[in-house]
């Protein structure tokens, strides 16, 4: 019986992945922050007495917790780095502490988990599935820090794809667009982003309007679609370099593949000005 690790499993993509893998008979190691506070809510979604499910409290930003978790993993066939969040706002409005924390969670934690678990993944000819983002291939105003963390994850993943192939370990990223998750409600704004004195107030107001509009969409894809892609990849023989999920992500990927870079960037400038107002 195979074992999958899913980080950030308390809700959204991660929780949906846990359900799918358990349904298929996998052993699932699910990690999340504040486990005891969330246990009651999780009991409504999962059978916490399922012998195939192990819950671990893990704050991926804490190196000592990562080290302890890695030591407690006996075996793993698939590692899904799903834990992450978004820091939004103009770079000038974001504190150094926020900048570093964004990279700690979205880039350093996946890198360190892969590094620490590679001996076990290599022994099982396993897979690494990194949950990236549309923002890992397209950056817009006020997303520069979040995008930087996902671009870094994409670069790591591509290098590892070549580095680990001969060792029997496959690496792939999933790039979701907008989905019905609690991601937008958990956005961290820059320390000065919401200040009336911010030079970027017009852009910030435009961004907030856009996010409200996106959240109100009746046809926004459900988070299960990303979980289903992850499940299929975990069971697949041959993995692509990356895969986009959601119409918005597919549209951007299509434009990037079709248009010359200069034309694509011109289009982005025009659309960003329309959306953000500056």
Could you describe the 3D structure shown?
With 278 residues, the protein is an alpha/beta fold. It has one domain (3-276): Rossmann fold (3-Layer(aba) Sandwich), CATH 3.40.50. The chain contains 9 helices and 9 strands. The chain has helices at residues 12-23, 35-45, 63-72, 96-123, 144-165, 201-215, 224-235, 247-258, 261-276, and strands at 3-6, 27-32, 53-57, 78-81, 87-88, 127-131, 170-176, 188-189, 242-245. It is globular.
Provide the gyration radius in Å: 19 Å
Strand content: 5-15%
Task: Give the termini separation.
Answer: 54 Å
Can you tell me the CATH topology?
Rossmann fold
Write the H/E string, N to C: EHEHEHEEHEHEEHHEHH
Oligomer: single chain
The helicity comes to 40-55%
- Going by CATH, the homologous superfamily would be NAD(P)-binding Rossmann-like Domain
In spatial order, strands of the major sheet run: 3-2-1-4-6-7-9
CATH architecture: 3-Layer(aba) Sandwich
Number of helices: 9
Mean pLDDT: 90
Low-pLDDT residue intervals, each spanning 5 or more residues: none
Counting DSSP E segments of at least 2 residues, the number of strands comes to 9
Biggest sheet details:
7 strands, parallel
Summarize the structure.
By secondary structure, the chain is an alpha/beta fold. Helices cover 50% and strands 14% of the residues.
């Amino acid at each position: 019986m195979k074992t999958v690790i899913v980080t950030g499993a308390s809700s959204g993509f991660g929780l949906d992945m846990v359900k799918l893998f358990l349904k298929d008979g996998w052993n699932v190691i699910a990690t999340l922050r504040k486990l005891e506070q969330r246990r009651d809510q999780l009991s409504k979604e999962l059978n916490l007495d399922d012998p195939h499910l192990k819950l671990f409290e893990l704050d991926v930003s804490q190196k000592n917790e990562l080290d302890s978790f890695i030591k407690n993993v006996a075996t793993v066939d698939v590692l899904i780095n799903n834990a992450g969040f978004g820091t939004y706002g103009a770079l000038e409005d974001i504190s150094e502490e926020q900048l570093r924390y964004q990279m700690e969670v979205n880039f350093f934690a996946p890198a360190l988990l892969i590094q620490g678990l590679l001996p076990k993944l290599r022994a099982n000819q396993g897979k690494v599935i990194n949950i990236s983002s549309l923002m890992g291939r397209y950056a817009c105003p006020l997303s520069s820090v979040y995008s930087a963390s996902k671009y870094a994850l994409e670069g790591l993943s591509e290098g590892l794809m070549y580095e680990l192939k001969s060792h029997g370990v496959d690496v792939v990223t999933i790039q979701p667009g907008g989905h019905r998750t609690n991601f937008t409600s958990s956005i961290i704004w820059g320390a000065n982003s919401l200040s009336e004195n911010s030079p970027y107030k017009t852009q910030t107001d435009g961004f907030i309007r856009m996010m409200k509009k996106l959240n109100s969409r009746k046809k926004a894809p459900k988070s299960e679609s990303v979980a289903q892609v992850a499940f299929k990849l975990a069971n697949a023989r041959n993995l692509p370099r990356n895969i986009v999920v959601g119409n918005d992500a597919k549209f951007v990927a299509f434009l990037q593949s079709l248009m010359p870079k200069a034309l694509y960037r011109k289009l982005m400038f025009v659309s960003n000005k329309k959306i953000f107002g500056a």
